[in-house]
From TrEMBL:
Naturally occurring in which organism (per UniProt): Mucilaginibacter agri
Coiled-coil zones: 469-512
Protein's UniProt keywords contain Coiled coil: yes
Keywords: Coiled coil
Name assigned to this protein: GAF domain-containing protein
Length: 792
């Protein structure tokens, strides 16, 4: 038996050297040279072993003829190339291989006595269809490109897997049909071509043993380890292997590419917001060799200045060929000491960078010196694109998990504080994936400076009540008119009481409107007036027309009885949207100067909270100048919002006014994210005073008067310390010089509020003398430079 790799085949296989023998017969008959003598000698040996010509069908027969076969194929196996070529005699796709070159034999010897050579990933279905396609191409003139790259995976003595591409030369083979062969029509051939997956159909058209395969093939291998490892790497990274399998596969691939046994692969994540390395949980089985015993550390602590520049700034490879020697010269290097403790003697660190963002560091380490160096590190150039895409995908998956946790437990967050919530969510994921319970911690930021401001729409409640009142009067007048006409036409009886009630409502509305007036009147109309209109079909045409128009006017979206309320809501909405858009746009700009926390609320106007401090941006080097810049920005933006509202009035149904307010609070405080309310609030009893002032200040009076501290077209700055007053006078002077604020500055004390006393205020008018809103002849950068000049 010929030892096929699979039990069934459309071929009867006969290992034959008839084509070589026929060539020898021609040489022996036509020449008298030494070559002819050699041919005749070989033919004499063949005559004693006719199976070599007629076909060997059994392995035992093959072994008996090994020496003769070697002589027959000797011209195809030049001795000078035996240590260079990886070649042997074979039958395609079978495990039958013999007459190896010396290099091929050396490779198999290194693999060990227990190694069995088999083609990788070739199953019975593929084998059967491929052999059938050979027959179709030879005998039915098809041109099916059925071949796929075939490989042998053969280990070295060091245990490194090498990958060899298989090539077959079939010039010495013949394919002929037997009596079992099925003659195929063109339609049947096309049916096969369209049904690769139907193995039963292929076996029906090409029954097992229905064709003879006679001859032999020359099989050549070439070392395609790097190219194939890359292909496997790509498939592995794009696939869905479990992480332990992924880690093991990657280490095996890197061993093949670098030809180094016992390579270990690690990964350390990079957190740009904090400038830290972390042993992140998104690739759990990949150990961090840079952080062997800790969860995180600042990059500047782990790396020296030269390696920091290379890895973090330049995103270049960092390779050390002899750790022990480097430790002698750099005993203070924390990174080298970490590696030395782990018995790492050479390594390559490769930054993983996607779209300019450093995601982390890929680590290749070895326990032997000189396994890695700056030269072979360049092999990573062909690997890193696949690694980068995979890690980027893993980072994306982790970010999705983190975002889901944040949205579930915290809600949507401002980017300036997102990093801390991300870190807590990441801790949650890592502990959860490791099988430990973990309770999310409260998020707190200490020593932050608060800024509060608002632009409030003046008398918005009064205006709303006026709009409601006007609409109700119109509706009541129309109802009175309809009922009077119904009474005149005698369509209804005894409606005198309802008419009097409606007229009484009109008299009440001419005086005032209360909080429940609208609800009370509409309830009365539903309960006592509309039942009268139920007999619509019994009324005359003109009454029906009046009722139809009346009910059309009760539509809240289009009806006339809601026109004033709609105009008011439109006015309020347009003002709020415009003011909020200005604040959001300017916030996006100011965040570039120095990141800080920002939140805003739309009510009857727009409020905002800002918090700035080192605990929010620990890597930015916060100082008091950053707070001053933000305070100046806040005053400027409130001025801009006030001007914008002034120019909006001409296009709005209601001409409303706005007031501006800033609260100055110089003492740093702590804020805490309240899980139940899903927002930040001040933390600690002392800091509660700040929240109390915020809630009560906008309705406060000037001390000793009944005049509100907020006035239309003006910004009031509430403070408690002399130093705060002096600071804000500088900001006011800068904006006065730019013709944004008026020259006059009012100063006064504020009435004592509940639990709050001693507050003072500056108030200044915002100038509206610009030709159009938003056109300032300066930038915030101009103001900052001037402020810096004053401070210096």
């Amino acid at each position: 038996m010929m030892l096929p790799q699979f039990e069934e085949s459309p071929f009867n296989i006969q290992l034959s050297f008839h084509k070589i023998i026929e060539g020898l017969e021609k040489i022996a008959a036509s020449e008298t040279s030494p070559r002819a003598e050699e041919a005749r000698s070989l033919l004499a040996q063949v005559a004693a072993h006719p199976e070599v010509r007629n076909g060997i069908k059994d392995v035992s027969t093959l072994k008996e003829n090994e020496t003769l076969i070697s002589l027959l194929v000797s011209d195809l196996f030049p001795p000078a190339l035996t240590l260079n070529e990886i070649k042997a005699v074979s039958i395609p796709f079978l495990s039958l291989i013999f007459n190896y070159t010396q290099r091929f034999q050396n490779i198999l010897n290194a693999a060990g006595p227990g190694f069995e050579i088999n083609i990788r990933d070739l199953d019975h279905h593929q084998f059967y269809v491929m052999t059938c396609c050979i027959i179709l191409n030879v005998h039915y003139n098809t041109s099916l490109n059925f071949s796929k790259p075939l490989f042998y995976d053969i280990p070295t003595a060091d245990g490194i897997t090498k990958h060899y591409r298989i090539l077959y030369n079939v010039d010495f083979m013949e394919i002929t049909p037997t009596e079992k062969a099925v003659k195929l029509s063109q339609e049947e051939v096309q049916q096969l071509i369209d049904n690769y997956d139907n193995l039963d159909l292929w076996k029906e058209k090409f029954p097992p043993g229905s064709w003879d395969l006679r001859g032999f093939a020359l099989m050549s291998l070439y070392d395609a380890t790097t190219e194939n490892a890359l292909s496997i790497l790509k498939g592995t990274l794009l696939g869905f292997q479990t992480e332990p399998d992924l880690h093991q596969t990657l280490e095996s691939i890197f061993q093949s590419i670098f030809n180094i046994p016992d390579i270990h692969v690690g990964f350390t994540a990079f957190e740009p917001e904090e400038g830290k390395f972390t042993t992140t949980g998104f690739i759990k089985k990949f150990k961090s060799h840079m952080l062997p015993e800790q969860f995180e550390d600042y990059c500047t602590n782990v790396l020296r200045s030269d390696s920091y520049q290379l890895l973090i700034k330049d995103n270049s490879y960092f390779a050390i060929s002899d750790v022990s020697e480097m430790v002698k010269n750099n005993p203070d290097s924390k990174l080298l000491s970490y590696f030395k403790v782990q018995k790492i003697e050479s390594f390559v660190l490769a930054p993983v960078v996607k779209n300019g963002n450093l995601l982390g560091i890929l680590e290749l380490v070895s326990c032997r010196a000189n396994d890695f160096n700056s030269v072979n590190a360049k092999k990573l150039d062909i690997i890193m694109p696949f690694i980068i895409d995979t890690i980027d995908r893993k980072v994306g998956e982790l970010q999705n998990q983190i975002q889901a946790i944040i949205q579930n437990y915290y809600t949507t967050l401002h980017p300036s504080v997102h990093w801390k919530f991300k870190r807590e969510a990441q801790n949650f994921i890592i502990h959860h994936n490791s099988g430990f319970d973990y309770e999310l911690k409260e998020i707190r930021f200490k020593e932050v400076y608060p800024l509060y401001g608002q632009i409030d729409i003046k008398d918005s409640s009064i205006t709303r009540n006026s709009s409601v009142k006007a609409d109700l009067i119109n509706q009541l007048k129309e109802l009175v008119n309809i009922l009077e006409k119904m009474c005149q036409r005698e369509f209804i009886d005894d409606a005198e009481e309802q008419l009097n009630d409606l007229k009484a409502f009109l008299e009440d509305l001419s005086i005032d409107i209360k909080a429940d007036t609208e609800q009370h009147i509409l309830g009365y109309i539903n309960n006592y007036i509309y039942p009268i209109f139920n007999q619509l079909d019994s009324f005359s045409y003109d009454i029906r027309e009046m009722l139809t128009k009346y009910f059309d006017d009760t539509d809240q979206q289009t009806g006339g009885f809601y026109s004033n309320r709609r105009d008011y809501e439109k006015t309020l909405s347009v003002i709020n949207e415009k003011l909020a858009s200005i604040l959001d746009k300017r916030q996006a700009e100011i965040q570039q100067y120095f990141p800080h926390y920002y939140e805003r609320f739309k009510t009857d106007g727009v409020e905002h909270n800002l918090y700035i401090g080192n605990s929010i941006t620990p890597n930015k080097g916060f100082n008091y100048n950053h707070l001053q810049h933000l305070r100046l920005w806040q005053l400027q933006v409130l001025s801009e919002m006030t001007v914008e509202e002034h120019f909006l009035k001409a296009d709005l149904p209601y001409h409303l006014n706005v007031t501006g307010l800033l609260l100055v609070f110089s003492a740093p405080l702590a804020i805490r994210f309240r899980m139940d309310e899903k927002h930040f609030d001040v933390d600690g009893a002392y800091n509660i005073r700040y929240e109390v002032i915020k809630k009560r200040i906008d309705k406060a009076f000037i001390k000793g008067t009944t005049v509100r501290i907020t006035q239309p077209g003006k910004i009031v700055i509430v403070y408690s310390k002399y130093e705060e007053e002096e600071e804000y006078r500088k900001y006011i002077e800068l904006l006065q010089a730019k013709h944004v604020l008026a020259a006059e500055i009012e100063q006064f004390e504020i009435e004592d509020l509940q639990a709050v006393s001693g507050l003072k205020a500056l108030r200044v008018k915002v100038l509206n003398n610009l030709p159009t809103a938003g056109h300032y002849a300066y930038s915030y950068n101009d103001l900052y430079h001037q402020l810096n000049a004053i401070n210096s």
